[in-house]
Design brief:
The chain contains 14 helices and 8 strands. With 346 residues, it is of the alpha/beta class. It has a single domain, classed as Metal-dependent hydrolases (TIM Barrel, Alpha-Beta Barrel), CATH 3.20.20.140. An 8-stranded parallel beta sheet has the order 1-2-3-4-5-6-7-8, with helices on both faces. Helix 7 runs parallel beside helix 9. It is globular, with a radius of gyration of 19 Å. It starts with a helix and ends in a 5-residue tail after the last helix. The relative contact order is 0.14. One of its GO terms (molecular function) is hydrolase activity. Its EC number is 4.1.1.52. One of its GO terms (biological process) is secondary metabolic process.
């Protein structure tokens, strides 16, 4: 036990991003996943990933190699969809969640120069369990870069008033929150009866959740929380004007917590990773809707294989050659600044 505590102490004093000396976080990839054995097992027990997307093999060695493929030296691992909610909302899910966070923290201790993580949380409808895990991450473990959450829980979007206590808790820790798309309850479940949801439905889920977080007032009420949207914001850059424009209609503005000017500013103030989202249409849209300082590297390993990661990165490099405002050194600095701002307080 003493040894473990010593390890943690050592890790948190020397290696955590908040410690000034060692964290280079070069081109930190904030959208990259781990599939710990306990999670793979939970998926199996549940009959597989309900998104229709096959679950790939994962390893920490593969993770490090994948980072190198895009010139990154640091990955902030998270648990992809469906995450802990696959185990329901009871004690089994809470136990799984804790095991995943300990596993991820162990990885950061073993690979301090290369690996950080977004803490896993239970299904937010388990409000007490979610708050307890946030407290564990920030008050006890103190190793996570931030937390991961999903675009919906059952039929609730993350800005639903049901979740107010969770947002208050995240605000109290000034958390960095990574929003990953979740499986959508849409009908038919799959386009053409076969297309996995990540292709088209996930970007829509991100847009729905992002607009919800702004219109519900969550973003206004959590000024110290920064939120990263996946995949260049899904379709948000494309539809942002449609969303804030709706607030010029009095009957709609009447129901919204924010006016259109505030909505524009809050959309711009999200952070956006470019995982598998580097087409000129997506990157131009992104730059028209946020500041270059809010753009982050992402790859989606291992759900994206090395071929896909390399071709997406080539697209990004082509674009960045003509848009130095989001060249690799800029993305590198963006992540470093963001991660250091939210480093857990020891
Ligand atoms: C984490 O590391 C500790 C210390 O090495 C070990 O005892 C424990 O089994 C590990 N837990 C997980 C979930 O990997
Ligand atoms: C919203 O609209 C309702 C009904 O039209 C009205 O009674 C109410 O005062 C309006 N609220 C605001 C904040 O404008």
């Amino acid at each position: 036990m003493f040894f473990i505590q010593f390890l943690f102490l050592f890790a948190s004093t020397v290696f955590l991003p908040g410690a000034t000396s060692t964290f280079s976080g070069h081109l930190a990839d904030t959208h990259i996943h781990a599939i710990p054995p306990a999670y793979a097992n939970a998926l199996d027990v549940a009959g597989g990933d309900p998104s229709g997307y096959p679950t790939p093999a994962w390893s920490i060695e593969g993770t490090i190699e994948s980072l190198a493929l895009v010139g990154s030296s640091y990955g902030v691992l998270s648990i992809s969809t469906p995450g802990v909610p696959i185990a329901g909302v009871g004690q089994t899910a809470r136990d799984l969640c804790r095991e995943l966070n300990i596993y991820l923290a162990n990885l950061t201790s073993s690979y301090p120069e290369n690996i950080g993580f977004f803490g896993a949380l239970p299904d937010w409808r388990d409000i007490d369990g979610t708050i307890a895990e946030i407290d564990f991450l920030y008050s006890t473990q103190k190793q996570a870069i931030g937390i991961g959450f999903y675009t919906s829980y059952g039929d609730l979007l993350p800005g639903d008033p049901t979740f107010k206590a969770i947002w208050d808790k995240l605000e109290s820790y000034k958390a960095l929150a990574f929003l990953h798309p979740g499986v959508m309850d849409v009908y038919p479940r799959f386009i053409g009866d076969f297309l996995p949801q990540p292709i088209i439905d996930y970007p829509q889920a991100t847009t729905r959740a992002a607009v919800d977080l702004v219109f519900s007032g969550v973003v206004s009420n959590t000024p110290n929380v920064d939120i990263i949207l996946s995949h260049a914001g899904g379709t948000l850059p494309y539809f942002a004007e449609r969303a804030w424009g709706s607030l010029l209609i009095p009957s709609i503005e009447n129901r919204s917590a924010v006016d259109s000017a505030t909505a524009i500013a809050q959309f711009r103030n999200f952070y956006y990773d470019i995982a598998l989202s580097a087409s000129p249409t997506q990157l131009n849209g992104l730059l028209q809707n946020t500041n270059p300082s809010h753009v982050l590297m992402g790859t989606d390993y291992p759900y994206a294989d090395s071929t896909l990661i390399a071709s997406s990165n080539d697209e990004y490099l082509d674009f960045a050659a003509a848009h130095p405002e989001i060249a690799a050194p800029v993305l590198s600095k963006n992540a470093k600044v963001l991660i250091e701002r939210h480093a857990p307080i020891n």
